[in-house]
Amino acid sequence: MKILLIIFVVVISTNCNPCQFYDLLTCADFLGSWKFVELCEKAHVTHEFTKGNDSKTLFLPSRGALDSIPPAIIEMMSKNKTFLKEVIMYHLVPQKLQCINMKDNSLLPTFQGEQLRVNRYTSEQDNKTLITIEGAPDVKEREVYVGSAKIINADISTLNGVVQIIDTVLVDT
């Protein structure tokens, strides 16, 4: 009972973010994206998500995003492990990047090898900042996009970086 109480107090005193005690991949599993964890295991890239400290950003597809991967993409990933690895690694950036730190017109290198471009816009009406990555055309106020994916839960701190939950799976075209 004492151990349970101590764990409860620690979680409450740290803004209720249990992910801060775990690496990116354990956090992904904790957040319900176990399919993403399985894909990482199949691609043999789990070490990229578990090593290092406070230095990576994972654009984590939500469970719904993973459930709605088009059948053609699923088939390609199951037949071509290189493609699977590229899709997974396209979601990982080798720097901790919180939304507030995204600079206009900067390029984010991914572990896949391609770059994501960050764009910041300020609304003239109410001076709110809008952020896109790779120039998503359908940006709305106070929303952040990565490619065509909307960030639906931002800035979840982990032991080795930060998680940005997105509403779709990123595929480099």
From TrEMBL:
<feature type="signal peptide">
    <location>
        <begin position="1"/>
        <end position="16"/>
    </location>
</feature>
<dbReference type="InterPro" id="IPR036378">
    <property type="entry name" value="FAS1_dom_sf"/>
</dbReference>
<dbReference type="GO" id="GO:0050839">
    <property type="term" value="F:cell adhesion molecule binding"/>
</dbReference>
<dbReference type="GO" id="GO:0007155">
    <property type="term" value="P:cell adhesion"/>
</dbReference>
<dbReference type="GO" id="GO:0030198">
    <property type="term" value="P:extracellular matrix organization"/>
</dbReference>
<dbReference type="GO" id="GO:0031012">
    <property type="term" value="C:extracellular matrix"/>
</dbReference>
<feature type="domain" description="FAS1">
    <location>
        <begin position="5"/>
        <end position="170"/>
    </location>
</feature>
<protein>
    <recommendedName>
        <fullName>FAS1 domain-containing protein</fullName>
    </recommendedName>
</protein>
<dbReference type="InterPro" id="IPR000782">
    <property type="entry name" value="FAS1_domain"/>
</dbReference>
<dbReference type="InterPro" id="IPR050904">
    <property type="entry name" value="Adhesion/Biosynth-related"/>
</dbReference>
<dbReference type="Pfam" id="PF02469">
    <property type="entry name" value="Fasciclin"/>
</dbReference>
<keyword id="KW-0732">Signal</keyword>
<dbReference type="GO" id="GO:0005615">
    <property type="term" value="C:extracellular space"/>
</dbReference>
